[in-house]
Amino acid sequence: MSDAKEGDAHLHRLVLFSDAVFAIAITLLAIEIHPPEHWTSVGELFFLMGPKLAAYAISFAVIGIYWVSHRRLFERIARANGMLDALNFITLGLVALLPLGTELLWEQEAGRAFPVYVTLVALIGVSLGLLWGYAAFIGKLVKPIRPLLATYVLVRVALLPGLMCGLSFFSLVHPWGWGLMAAIVGSLALAGRRIERRAAPQDAA
Amino acid sequence: MSDAKEGDAHLHRLVLFSDAVFAIAITLLAIEIHPPEHWTSVGELFFLMGPKLAAYAISFAVIGIYWVSHRRLFERIARANGMLDALNFITLGLVALLPLGTELLWEQEAGRAFPVYVTLVALIGVSLGLLWGYAAFIGKLVKPIRPLLATYVLVRVALLPGLMCGLSFFSLVHPWGWGLMAAIVGSLALAGRRIERRAAPQDAA
Amino acid sequence: MSDAKEGDAHLHRLVLFSDAVFAIAITLLAIEIHPPEHWTSVGELFFLMGPKLAAYAISFAVIGIYWVSHRRLFERIARANGMLDALNFITLGLVALLPLGTELLWEQEAGRAFPVYVTLVALIGVSLGLLWGYAAFIGKLVKPIRPLLATYVLVRVALLPGLMCGLSFFSLVHPWGWGLMAAIVGSLALAGRRIERRAAPQDAA
Amino acid sequence: MSDAKEGDAHLHRLVLFSDAVFAIAITLLAIEIHPPEHWTSVGELFFLMGPKLAAYAISFAVIGIYWVSHRRLFERIARANGMLDALNFITLGLVALLPLGTELLWEQEAGRAFPVYVTLVALIGVSLGLLWGYAAFIGKLVKPIRPLLATYVLVRVALLPGLMCGLSFFSLVHPWGWGLMAAIVGSLALAGRRIERRAAPQDAA
Asked: Which of D148, C37, C93, D11 is nearest to B30 (CA)?
C-alpha cells in the first residue's frame, strides 16, 4: 500500500514535470520571433513574418499532438521507475529542441531544413514509442491491457506523428500526398477502433 | 465512475498545462525589455523605458484578464475531450504570441501596430468563445447551466476583452471612448447579474 | 459546501499560477548572463563575471524571500475572489520585472541603479502588503486571525524585504548599517513572537 | 493534525516550485543554441552544431540526474521548514546557472571551461547533500530512517554526480577513467544495496 502510494507520487511528479517542459517548450517557440525593423502596412508585416508564423503554427501543433499522446500514454501507465524517468527524459530532451528546430525551419529558404525538422519530429515519436514499449512489455508498468492493443498503441505513437509531419511537407509539393495521408490515418483509426472494441471486455474486467 | 475519474484527470492536466503556458507567457513579456545603454538620471531612465513598461503593463493586464476568464470558464466545465484540447491549444497558441505582440507595440512609434495588437487580443477572446461554445452547446462538457446563461458567458468571454482593449487605445485619442466603454461594461454586468439571478434556482438544483 | 469547494479550487489555481510565475522569474534571472568572449584563467573568468553573479545572487535571494512571504500569506488565506486575483497580478507583474532590474544592476557601474532596484524590491513588498491588507481587513478572505497579528503580518510583509534590501546596499558603504538592520530584524522578530504567543489561544480555538 | 497538514502544504508547494525551476532550467538549455548562418548539407549542419548539441545533451543528463536525486530525497522528507526552503533555494540557484555553464562549455575550445563546469555540477551535489544532511540529522524533517542509511544517502547524493561528471570528462582523455568510474559506481551501488537490506526491517516497522 505504501509502495503503491510512493509509486503514485513518483508518477505524479514525473507527469507534472513533463507537463512543465511541454508548456515551456511550446511557449518558447515564439520567443525568437521578432517584428521586422521596417514595415509600412499590415499586409507587409504579415508578408515579412509569414514564414516565422507558419513555422510557429506547425511546431505548436507538433508539440500539442505529442502532449496529447504523452497524456494518453500516461493514462495507461500505473507506476513509474528509474528507467521510465530516463526514457521520459529522452523524449523531453527532444521536445526541448523543437524551438531550435523551428528556427531552422524559417531561417532556411531552401528545403534542406525540412528533412532535419521531420527527423526531429519523428525521433520524438520513436522515443515515446520506446517509452511505451518499455512500460508495456518490459517494465510491466501499465494498467492491464491486451498485448494487441499495446502493440497498436506502440505503432501509432511511434510512427504516426512523424509520418504525418513528413507527409505534410511532402504534400506541399506533391498534392497526392494528402490522399496517402488520409488513407494511412483512416486505416489506422479503423484498425484501432476494431482492436479497442475487441479488447474492451477483457480490459474492463 | 472510472470514466468520470479519467475525465477528471484529463481536465486536471489540461488546466495545469494551460496555467503553465499563461504563467510563462506573462513572465516572458519582460524578457525582451533591456535597460538603455546610457542614462544619467532616474527620470531619463523612465523616459527611455516608458513605452516598453507601458506596453508591458497593458499585456500583463490582458493575459491576467484572459487567465481569469479561462479559470472561470473551466470552473463551469466538467470534463475534457480531444476537441477541447485542440480548441484550448488554439487559445494558448495566441496567448503565447502576446510577448511578440507586445514587442510590436513598443517598436513602432506610429499607430500602425495598434490594430494588429488589438486584433491579436480580440482573437484570443474569439478562440475562448469558440472553446466555450463547443463545450456548452456541442460537446456537452459543462456542468448543468441554463442556455441563456451559457450564451451570456459566450458573448462576454468572446467579445468583452478585445472590445475593451480596442476601446482603451481608441479612448487615448478620443476621450469620449471611456464613457462608451463604461456603458458597455456596465450594461453587460447588469445583464449578467440579472441572468445569473434568474438562472440560480435551476443551476443550484 | 459547493461554494467552499469552488473557492478552494480558485485559491488553488491562483497559488499554482503564482508559484509558476515566481519559478519562471527566478530561473530567467540568469538567462541574460553570458560568458565573456575572452578569458584566460578561471580567476579572470570570475573577475569578469563577478558583478553579474553578485546581482544574480541578490535577486535570487529577493525572489526567494518574497516566495516564502507569499507562501506564508496564502497559508493564512482561506479563499480567493476577483480582487485578490487583481492584487496578486500586481505583485506578479513586479516580480516578473526583477530579471530586468537585475540587468540594470550589473550594467551600471555607478550607484545610480541601486535606488531604482531597491524601489522595485520595496514595491513588491508594498503590493504584497496591499494584498494582505485587502484579504485580512476588507475582503475577509483569511482564516480567523486577531487584528493585531494581522497588522503585524502586514507591516512585516510590506516593509521588511524592501528595508533589508535597501539597508544591505547602504551597509556596503556605511558598515554601521548592518547593526541597524540587525536591530530592526531582531526587534520585529521579538515583537512578532510576542504577538503570536498572545494570539495563539484564540487562533487555535 | 492541523500542523501536519500545514507542513504537508508547505512541503507540497516547495516540491512543485522546485520541479518548475528544474523544468524551466532544463528547457532553457537549448534557448541559446541557434542554427549556423550558412550550411550546405545536413552533415555540415551537424558538424557545426555538434559541440552545442553535445553540451546540451550533457547538461540535460546532469539536470535529469539531479531531478531524480531531488525527487528521491524529498520522498524521504516528511515536512518542510524555513531552513529547508533556504537550502533548497541554494540548490535551485545553482541549477538555474546550468544554462550559463552549458554556454561556457561550448564557447571555449580549450579545456579551461571543463573544470568550471564540473565544479558547478559538483556544487549542486554538495548543496543537495547539505540539504539532506540538515533534514536528516539537524532539522529532523525526514521519515524514520537508520543513521547509516541516511549517511549513505548523504554521501551518494553529495559526491556521486559531480564525481561522475568529472570522471566522464577525464575519461575522454584517459580512457582508463571509465574503469575507475565503473568501479566507484559499482561499489557504491553494492554498499547501498547491503545497507538498505539491513535497514529494511527497522524502516518498514
From this structure: C93
Nearest to B152 by CA among B121, B183, B202, B196: B196
CB-based burial, A20-29: b 16+ in 10 Å, e otherwise: bbbbbbbbbb
D57 reaches A (C-beta below 8 A): yes
CB-based contact (8 Å) between A17 and chain D? Answer: yes
Please give the model's pTM, rounded to 2 decimal places: 0.89
User: What's the number of CA atoms in the CB half-sphere (13 Å) around residue A125?
Assistant: 22
Q: Does B61 touch chain C (CB under 8 A)?
A: yes
Cβ atoms D166, D125 nearer than 8 A:
no
**What span, in angstroms and rounded, lies between the C-alpha atoms of A88 and D98?**
20
Q: What is the pLDDT along chain A (205 residues), one digit of tens a residue?
A: 344 555 678 888 899 999 999 999 999 998 888 888 788 888 888 888 888 898 899 899 889 989 998 998 898 898 898 899 999 999 999 999 999 989 888 876 557 888 888 889 889 988 998 999 898 889 888 888 888 888 888 888 878 887 888 887 788 778 888 888 888 888 888 888 888 777 555 544 4
Cβ atoms of B107 and B32 closer than 8 Å: no
Return the pLDDT at A108.
Answer: 65
Long-range contacts of A39-44 (CB under 8 A, 24+ apart): A39/B112, A40/B112, A41/B112, A42/B112, A42/B115, A42/B116
Instruction: Classify the C-alpha dihedral D16-D18-D20-D23 as positive or negative.
Output: negative
Q: Which residues pair with A142 in a beta bridge?
A: A77
DSSP lists the bridge partners of residue B77 as B142
User: With an 8 Å Cβ cutoff, are C99 and B42 in contact?
Assistant: no
Residue D180's CB is within 10 A of a number of other CB atoms, namely 14
Give the nearest partner residue to C42 out of D32, D82, D116, using CB atoms. Answer: D116
Question: B129 with B154: CB under 8 angstroms?
Answer: yes
Q: Find the CB nearest B26 among C6, C21, C104.
A: C21
| Below-70 pLDDT ranges, chain B | 1-7, 108-110, 199-205
Task: Copy the grid coordinates of residue D111.
Answer: 579545456
Here the ipTM equals 0.85
Considering only CB atoms, B60 lies closest to which of C89, C108, C115, namely C89
For residue D58, the chain A residues in CB contact (below 8 A) are: none
pLDDT in tens, D150-183: 888 888 887 888 788 888 778 877 888 888 888 8
**Helix and strand tally (H, E) in chain D?**
7, 0
On the question of pLDDT at C1 being above 80, the answer is no
Q: Is A98 helix (H, G, I), strand (E, B) or coil?
A: helix
Q: Both ends of chain A: CA-CA distance in Å?
A: 22
Q: Which amino acid is at A38?
A: H
List CB contacts (< 8 A) between D13 and chain C: 15, 19, 71
Assess B42–C contact: CB distance below 8 Å, yes or no. yes
Q: Helices A2-28 and D42-75, interaxial angle, to 10°?
A: 140
> Does the beta carbon of C8 lie under 8 angstroms from any beta carbon of chain D?
no
Angle CA A18–A23–A29, to nearest 5: 125
Q: What is the pLDDT of residue B134?
A: 92
- Give the cell for residue A43: 499586409
Count of CB atoms situated within 10 Å of the CB of B7: 15
d(CA B80, CA B142): 9
Does D38 contact A at CB distance below 8 Å?
A: no
Contacts of D83 in chain C (CB under 8 A): none
d(CA C170, CA B150): 58
Contact across the interface for A116 and D64, Cβ inside 8 Å: no
Express each pLDDT in D65-108 by its tens digit: 899 989 988 988 998 988 999 999 999 999 999 999 898 888 76
Q: Enumerate the residues of chain C whose CB falls inside 8 A of the CB of residue B23.
A: 17, 20-21, 24
